[in-house]
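Researcher: We're teaching a course module on how sequence relates to structure. For the next exercise, students receive a sequence and then see the predicted structure as tokens, so they can try to spot secondary structure elements on their own. Here is the exercise chain.
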Amino acid sequence: MPKKLTPVEAVPTLLQERLTLWGRCIRAQRLSQRITSPDLAQRMNISRATLQRLERGDPGASAANYLRAFFVLGLLDDLAPSPPETLWTEPGVRRVVHARRRAVDDDDF
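Model: And here is the predicted structure for the students to work with:
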């Protein structure tokens, strides 16, 4: 069964903008380094169609493929730097606060 693709409408705007920017960077660096798309796809061990999706900023492409492209093009430290150590060593520093649901009354129906 083929993998379901994530529709662009289902992705928050900020994330889609970031993916589009990453795709532009991948394409620009590939061209500036004079690497053909078949060569880059082969180096990344992906199909040309997947590389084209990355260059378009497609949200259905895996994060691993974006990171692999950054690595192969020498962009990993610039576009996806390692997170600060405090994010994984200090538990409870950041917590998501969920809104409390109000009790449902019989009058609501």
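Model: If you want an answer key for the exercise: The helical segments are 13-32, 37-44, 48-56, 63-73, 76-79, 86-89. Residues 11 and 59 are 7 Å apart (CA to CA).
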